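Blinded run. Sample ID left blank on purpose so nobody reads anything into the name before looking at the predicted structure. Input follows.
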Amino acid sequence: MKKTYKIEVDCANCANKMELATKNTAGVKDAVVNFMTLKMKVEFEEG
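Blinded prediction complete.
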């Protein structure tokens, strides 16, 4: 399952930290943060 979230970050470094933390979360298959659009796409593992 994939979901897109609106996020509020002030800098690209913060966006990168958010992406890495989300990727390291149990149940998350992949995460991509787009700093320009302020959106984060998360793909969750099945089950």
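Unblinding after everyone has recorded impressions. The chain has one domain: 2-44.
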